[in-house]
Amino acid sequence: MKKSFSISIFAWLGALILGTSCGTSSTITYDYMLPAELTLPVELASMGIINHTPDSLYELSSKVTQVIAEDVSDARYFNDVHLLDSVITEPMTLAHVDDLARYMEVDFLVSLDSLELTLSRATTKMPEGEYHATAQIDVLGMVRLYLPGRSVPMTHLMVRDTLNWHGYSYDEKEALSFLPTIAVMASESTTYLGEKFADKLVPHWTTVLRALFVRESGELKEAAVNVHDNEWGRAAKKWEMTYNKTNSIKLKAYCAYNLAVYHEKLSEIDNAIEWIIKSAKHFEQVKHHKDVQDAALYLAFLQKRQKELQLLDLQFAE
User: Which of 79, 157, 198, 232 might form a disulfide with 71, Cβ 3.0–4.6 angstroms?
Assistant: First the structure.
């Protein structure tokens, strides 16, 4: 059966930062778990990872499969993760899939079937005379999942992205010298690709950046000190008390927003949604249109998070 776990892979999520000029904000970060892109039956408890790309790509493709195997294994989501450290060139026929699964003693196969890295470099002279050197690698990879007894893949996963590097100098050659070597860029690209595939296969952690409204005095300042000291419960009590007693609609909006962040951090998404709706209503009352837009974006994020938590519950079901 699949097991509960914790892992240390972090993928940065775009932050919802408030742009209001009418209040002061500070930022905090915290980690939360995202579900895997695939929700597999609990019977598929052991995974075999194979390399089905051309021999000419072995150095690059083997790095991708190794990273997938390491990250998926570290997650401890599947009972067993096995890597076949050689290239499979034969077609993935029904008989071949059955033979590989039997040989590796696994329930299903994850096959890296294609890998492309496209490099481009350029230098541009800036108006102030400095050279800007850039290197870009377009990465494209595909894995397919195979089940014994089936003649076609169960599904496929694709990663397509672009990685960029930059160098600056008033000398063009020096600007180029600040770029990594092709070998380093290729290594970073294949590592990135393997991590992205692993994230699609297992639940994983991400880090989110959030804004909190503070003031130079009063309850919001004291609550900010509580947050700094990691005393979130005390901060939440101050926000809720201020929300209930103040006659300031703007201050109610600030407190409601902070309470939404507090409940989101606790994965109490229903409560977070309730508070962000109140915050948006109050911002609308005081005509803080930018904050209304930010609250709407936050509400959409929380609704998405609500579905992700439901999916996580399903993925961790015994």
Answer: 198
Residue 245 neighbours by CB distance under 10 Å: 10
Q: What is the pTM of this model?
A: 0.79
Output the pLDDT for position 215.
Answer: 79
Secondary structure (H, E, C), the chain: CCCCCCCCCCCECCCECCCCCCCEEEEEEEEEEECCCCCCCCCCCEEEEEECCCHHHHHHHHHHHHHHHHHHHHHCCCCEEEEEEEECCCCCCHHHHHHHHHHHCCCEEEEEEEEEEEEEEEEEECCCCCEEEEEEEEEEEEEEEECCCCCCCCEEEEEEEEEEEEEEECCHHHHHHCCCCHHHHHHHHHHHHHHHHHHHHCCEEEEEEEEEEECCCCHHHHHHHHHHCCCHHHHHHHHHHHHHHCCCHHHHHHHHHHHHHHHHHCCCHHHHHHHHHHHHHHHHHCCCHHHHHHHHHHHHHHHHHHHHHHHHHHHCCC
Sign of CA dihedral 164, 165, 170, 171: negative
